[in-house]
Amino acid sequence: MPKAILVYDSLVEIGGLERVMAAHAHYLEKMGFDVTLLFGHVKPGITDYAFLKGLHIRELSPFKFKNESVKVILAILGLHRLRKYKHVDLIFTYSPISNFWTHTLGPKRVFYYLPAEFVYYPLKERWLWADVPKRKIAFLGSLVVGWYIKHIDQTLTRTADLLFANSEYLAKEVIDRYGLHPIVLYPPVNPVFKPVTDTKKAHAVLKKYNIDKPFILSAGRLVPDKHFDWLIEAFSKMKSRNNYYLVCAGPVQDSFKQELLQLARKCGVAKQLKLLGLVTQEELVSLYGMAELFPFTSAKEAFGLVPIESIACGTPCVVWDDHAGPEETVKPGVNGFAAKPYNNNDLAEKMDYALQTKFKQKHFKTIVQSAQPFLDAEQFKIFKTNVEKLLKN
Q: Average pLDDT for residues 149-153, to the nearest whole number?
């Protein structure tokens, strides 16, 4: 049986990239591969989350201590277990760091492109991106040896045997930055994300979180660069805000949670804001399906998996009209709306309009159907075709 490894820096949170890696692992298993997911650090207990269950996941670090940043840095210096995998048939990488770890191993390497924000983005955006210790270390390193990191990144990206990008938007970045033309492979929508059929179970989820009136949902990692602060401000400007809860589902550090709660108090919507923290995949499906609307306020997002998951469940979205990834999935008047970039007044107006016109109820079937090109089965076809072509060469 051929063997494949999927390599990334750390497994510490449940986000879009983690979903993508799990999907790719299942694709390779369907193609007959023995698959192992390798991370510089694995947070204890995280592998119990629904879409990670059953996957063969291993930590690269030989050390037992818990500090993620130190483990990743030591792995960059060569203190890792990757050498034992030098005889595998295929390597998938998902970051510049994992490219660096694996580039001398020998097997064919597929890079699912993830930009090195900490060296290419403007200084202010890089600092906003650095919301956790490991990112702050990367940010500080970029100030000292950013030129060298760029050189390594350019070299290793160009030497990948197959290059995927997760959107047309990100593909353009690759063309402009590296002169390469990647294949667009969208993050696939897991088949579990579909309209609610068991309303009793869905209402039980709402009861668990004390959601006893209509609500607007947003989801994902609650971190500064996803701009949930903009969402709270826009919600406070809505004419219909008193009729709804604003529900945010996703992991959040306590310090940032307190910032969001303080902002909600300042904006007069503290009683309507519900920060649920990390929910199960099954609960997320219910929340998507039962919500009236899903606003997504991340700026210049490469793709944005949560909006298309919401759409697959029948709930329309409002995104920014900033010519980034979400506009490839959210089509105004079809499955949602696009607000003027970073204009909270316009975002509030678009949300009010969607709710007042009962857009979800009137366009439900069209909304669900619009997710079809992004479903798991469709993306698997693209994945399989290109990986098989690579292995034949």
A: 89
